[in-house]
Amino acid sequence: xxxxxxxxxxxxxxxxxxxxxxxxxxxxxxxxxxxxxxxxxxxxxxxxxxxxxxxxxxxxxxxxxxxxxxxxxxxxxxxxxxxxxxxxxxxxxxxxxxxxxxxxxxxxxxxxxxxxxxxxxxxxxxxxxxxxxxxxxxxxxxx
Length: 143
Hints:
- This protein is an all-beta fold.
- Helices cover 3% and strands 45% of the residues.
- It has a five-stranded antiparallel β-sheet, with no helix packed on it. A four-stranded mixed β-sheet has the order 1-7-6-9, with no helix packed on it.
- The protein is globular.
């Protein structure tokens, strides 16, 4: 089942990229808000991902970095798990920008020919892979 991302159902995996005062009545000033930051000695990188996979058979994890997924175009499914347990894999429609917590297992597939995502993460990313033994695919019905 594909879930629509909400603050509540996404909180155990990470956070939404948004401004908490976005809906204030005053519209006369720009609003700036730091959503997430690392210590000063950690550099960041910005990447652009074109997703063409319709099926994946592994998830990846970055134990030492937060990671943003910011949809640019196309429809993307984001698979997430906190633990290395197949029955705990959740599927979200990536229809808004999010930040994954450190150590969250994740993978993406596109529902279209391709989709595009902006990613921000630490410059030196350590990656661990979890070979699933089965396929996750774009055949899910989005709620």
